[in-house]
Amino acid sequence: MTKQSGRILAAVLAGLLLTGCSLFKGADQNDPDPVDPNAGTGIEEPAGSVDPVTPPEGDPADAVDPSGTAEETPTEGQPDASANDPGALTTPELPTPVVPDPGTSNPSEGTEAGDGLHVTDIRLDKYIVAVEVGKSDMPLVTMLPSTALDVGEIWTSDDTAVASVSTWGKITGISPGECRVTVRSTDNPDVKAVVEVMVVESTDVIHVKQISLDKYETTIHVGLMDMPWVTMYPTNAKDKGEIWTSDDTAVATVDQYGRITGVGPGTCTVTVRSKDNQDVTAKITVHVKIGEDAKEPTYIDGTLIVNRTYGLPRTYNPGVSAEAKAALDELIAGASEDGLEFWVESGFRSYDQQLSLYNTYVGREGKDAADRYSARPGHSEHQSGLAFDLNSFDDNFDQTPEGKWLAAHAWEYGFTLRYPKDKEDITGFMYEPWHVRYIGKTLAQKLHDSGQVLEEYFDITSVYAD
Ligand SMILES: [Zn+2]
């Protein structure tokens, strides 16, 4: 899986919905895998919907080509619709989030001037580039902190016979060979970043020189998955095929797309190798634990709680609650009187359906992204039989007459909009204007009047144990 295609999926998914809800209109709630990433739903601008990637916990240098770039670690990839990526879509080049890289510069540098006004670090979106003679490339530069006043750049090439660099960082191939291009801060010339430049003839095949992952360590439960993002450098290498292996398949297996599945408790190493250049590898340490399912459902003051902290047993399988369904029918009737139409996109989902759905999302975007919008098995409110996804898995549902009506009136029928905007940190899930949870009219009114979500009202957390 490449970073780029995953990002696009993140954007697609973010634009559609998402807490453990099945995705598309008409999706059968009994289908544990109703998602078709190529279904032609609008691809939205992802810049605001993708979190910056967590920095690798391991030493990224371990996974890097030892040819002298340990000082600079690649962080982000360029657009790449890899042929062996089943989720690949094409899209214009996207802005890339900044990935903190502990190895990029001396972190103590500038701490004296850590007033936020001076540059203390420089990040690039790529640290290895290959350009043809006469062609150009330009790494994206981020000066940190973002509040620095002077973000001027000084660019130099250590061999201008091979590649030149303009004052704004445009690198142009002059003659075949290799050189290094350095960018320094005008504000603090001790702070720099280096790009390895290969200049090739237009007829040359560009080979993979380095692989980076978005993380070098992960912890997953038995039966669940993770999938690191892979970026191969130079990003214009011809063959970016991946070969994945696990050194202990009793602990975790990995498929040809880099989807790692926990098999048994323990730790193993999963390796990705360049098909093109099998000396180039990156490794991720995989810890597998046995997930602890809840023994009993959790009730607080008679209200069933399902979130990241409070799960449901695998055997909890009530189907749609008759009381909740009756209340929903009233809601639908009430809206109908106002000339609006509601329908259920997704209602009850069993533990096993959620397991399958969650793994599907992880297999497309990785665990970190999937965790934002898809509940892990046992932690989806849909397993309670008390939650419904109505009409549309689109953030802009809140701009439609139905979405506005739902936000204004759901409480009158005993429902709460469970995952409001700007409460992701509290609920543990992204904004879902379509997801309602039946809690009864008394409590629904209290939440409506106070503007609280269940976690706030009961003063409880929503955090996975691991
Ligand atoms: Zn939902």
Give a structural overview.
The chain is α+β, with helices and mostly antiparallel strands. The protein is 17% helix and 24% strand. It is built from 8 helices and 24 strands. It has a 4-stranded mixed beta sheet, with no helix packed on it. A hairpin with a 6-residue loop joins strand 17 and strand 18. Helix 3 crosses helix 4. The longest helix is centred in the C-terminal third of the chain and has 16 residues. It starts with a helix and ends in an 8-residue tail after the last helix. The site of zinc ion has 8 residues, from strand 22 and strand 24.
Note the topology.
Layout: H1 3-14, E1 121-124, E2 128-132, E3 136-137, E4 141-144, E5 153-157, E6 163-165, E7 171-173, E8 177-185, E9 192-200, E10 210-213, E11 217-221, E12 225-226, E13 230-233, E14 242-246, E15 252-254, E16 260-262, E17 266-274, E18 281-289, E19 298-300, E20 303-305, H2 322-337, E21 344-346, H3 351-365, H4 367-373, E22 387-390, H5 401-409, E23 415-419, H6 424-427, E24 432-438, H7 441-450, H8 454-458
Parallel strand pairs: 2-9, 11-18
Antiparallel strand pairs: 1-4, 3-7, 5-8, 6-7, 8-9, 10-13, 12-16, 14-17, 15-16, 17-18, 19-20, 21-22, 22-24, 23-24
Helix pairs in contact: 3-4
The structure holds zinc ion.
